[in-house]
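Subgroup meeting minutes
Present: P.N., E.W., G.H.
Scribe: E.W.

1. P.N. recapped why we're keeping a running log of single-chain structure predictions: easier to compare across weeks, and new members can see raw inputs and outputs side by side.
2. G.H. added today's entry (121 aa).
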Amino acid sequence: MQTVRLILDHSNFYCPVTGKLITSEESFAPSPATVFTFVDEAYEFENITPELRTIWDQLDEEIDNDDDLDYEPFDKFCEQIEDDSIVCFRITTRGMACGPTSTTIYIAIDMNYCENQEEDD
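Output recorded in log:
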């Protein structure tokens, strides 16, 4: 998996494979090519494929059994995804509230996804 870092002043993100709007100020709707969406602030997944959920659950079990981790669980999760057709977009959006704010989400896309792929499964 490759990671692309983006810093944006807006929250509009379109799937580079399907062209569908994934996130905006008003909505979140993963495209069929989205393999996971991870919200850094909440430290949780908005969506994740069953295959990747298995990897995360195994790491989660390690976390529960070890109070003194020497790694960041989400980083280790990303390292275990060996599929080079998946691109993870690390998107930090900036804005103003009572001062400067920022939020980071990770949206991973299967760049090899085909629209008729679901029909073949």
